[in-house]
Amino acid sequence: MNETDYVLNQHIFDAVRFLKENWQQKPVVIRGAFLDFHDPISPEELAGLAMDSGVDSRLVIQKDDQWNVVHGPFEHFNDLPEQHWSLLVQAVNEHVPIAQDLLRAFRFLPDWRIDDLMVSYSTPHGGVGPHVDQYDVFIIQGLGRRRWQVGAKQTLKTVLPHRDLKQTEAFEPIIDAMLEPGDMIYIPAGFPHAGASELPSLNYSVGFRAPSQAELLSALADYALDKEKLQKRFEDRLEDTLNPEGNGLPEFDPWHFAPLHTAGFKQLLLEALQDDTLLHDVLAEFLSKNPRPPLPEWPERPVLEASLEYQLAQYPLLFKAIGVRMITTEKDGMIHAVVQGQWYPLDEDAEDLFGVLCDMSDCIDTHTLSEYLESAAARHLLCGLLNEGLFVLGTDDDDDSPGEDITQ
């Protein structure tokens, strides 16, 4: 196995059976989910990431039943106790290319469902306490050993031991398991769970997006306002409210907001949701956008299709910006790519190119792109992504820093 290959053990894990019996239904422990699992990141490298201002990280520390949460970036990790703390770093896949490779094992689920890879380093007894997540998660055990308890889906009292830490009251576990390296546990959204390390541990949490109604309605509103859609306004049909007795005027006071008004506004909103084409476009753009927007690196001059091959010849590597989201969908009878909300029509060549770009973890050799640039649609796609600053031509001059030792 190549050191960057992460493949689920097909003798242990049956994706079809999992989707039928477990996905969004019930938690499950998969022993030996990954054979010969190797950590894509060390504790020292994770600590180095947590010192970066562009990375979302936090320390959760427990002492004498008191909880504290400290947010990064961190200057050092001195004075930490030997036990009862965890360092958690979000979206490690967007900063460590080999960590992105770990997500490939989960491509029996749609790419647009994946949120990020959160990595935690925990000392003995370290954890974040019992809690409930609003997304589905696979947690892979790397270095060390960690005990997981999962309860049945239920309503539990919320506990706030710290303003930045939401926990639940204690629950009766339906799963109580110690995970070894290469083991994995799947926990659907809404199931309470708690993890505590027995030994210094690395854990890899692959989270899957579960947009709320509020987020979807917000995306619809943002799109409609930006595109000047859904402009129909509320209309009062006051003749339906007239009182046939007395003076015949509406039977409610002028300052009263009546249930029939609510019904009228509800109908207006429901009409907005009947436009399937509009909803499709809203959702495609929403799902193609990273909530942690990538930082674009625009070229000094626009890259033109006529000079694309010349530009590629000047640089040995094509880099992908951190956190780029890419999906395809059908529109007007044609396959389109949607990248960070931008649309690109695809023909067969462009679709092949898109697959190559989508599979990139960090960078690829530019000479490998020539065979995919036969069509105008393929050249339009690559030029568009370069001009948006989401893909960048360059050389390999990365400076890898070792990070800081937090294991002592």
From TrEMBL:
<dbReference type="GO" id="GO:0016706">
    <property type="term" value="F:2-oxoglutarate-dependent dioxygenase activity"/>
</dbReference>
<protein>
    <recommendedName>
        <fullName>JmjC domain-containing protein</fullName>
    </recommendedName>
</protein>
<dbReference type="InterPro" id="IPR039994">
    <property type="entry name" value="NO66-like"/>
</dbReference>
<feature type="domain" description="JmjC">
    <location>
        <begin position="98"/>
        <end position="225"/>
    </location>
</feature>
<keyword id="KW-0479">Metal-binding</keyword>
<dbReference type="Pfam" id="PF08007">
    <property type="entry name" value="JmjC_2"/>
</dbReference>
<keyword id="KW-0408">Iron</keyword>
<dbReference type="InterPro" id="IPR003347">
    <property type="entry name" value="JmjC_dom"/>
</dbReference>
<dbReference type="GO" id="GO:0046872">
    <property type="term" value="F:metal ion binding"/>
</dbReference>
